[in-house]
Design goal:
The protein is mainly alpha-helical and 159 residues long. It has a single domain (2-23, 42-146), classed as Rossmann fold (3-Layer(aba) Sandwich), CATH 3.40.50. Helices cover 45% and strands 9% of the residues.
């Protein structure tokens, strides 16, 4: 089953790429905009903030997840798909919610993450671990979707 879930990761990430608003033109490649002399100190601090790196470095993430970062490269993956604050995204076959947690922190309060698992995955191994993860502070913008991939039950335009 794990091999099946891992094989769906590319599909899940393709769905992510079609979601939400694009980052600002000055930051389309995931790099900070060029520093201008006209920027105030607060604007400089905001420009230096990287929501993806901030989400990955969040101290509330588990040590187990941090160890997975080396193999999963979440920063590279989310930058490739240009995930940004305010977006609505789907994490298909979320499993225990590794990416859902990071995505929730990147899209922030103004965004939404639909964390989908099939009933088979939920019943076999994901129900309790995913429920525990989603009960953590800062993940209130995650909507759990326990449905088949062919029938997500999401409204058109919700992503």
């Amino acid at each position: 089953m794990i091999a099946f879930s891992r094989s769906l990761l590319p599909l899940s990430l393709v769905i992510l790429s079609a979601c939400g608003a694009a980052p600002s033109p000055g930051n389309a490649a995931g790099t900070a905009p060029a520093k201008s002399e006209a920027q105030s100190p607060s604007e400089e601090a905001e420009a230096a903030t990287d929501p993806i790196q901030d989400a990955i470095a969040n101290p509330s993430r588990s040590e187990e997840d941090r160890l997975r970062d080396a193999d999963r490269n979440p920063g590279d993956v989310l930058r490739f798909f240009q995930i940004a604050p305010g977006m609505a995204v789907a994490d298909l076959m979320t499993g225990k919610g590794y990416y859902a947690e990071i995505l929730a922190r990147v899209v922030g309060e103004g965004g939404r993450v639909y964390a989908q698992n099939t009933p088979f995955v939920v019943e076999r191994f994901a129900d309790a671990p995913l429920s525990e993860r989603l009960a953590r502070p800062g993940l209130e913008n995650v909507v759990r979707v326990d449905r088949e991939l062919t029938d997500l039950g999401l409204e058109p335009g919700s992503l």
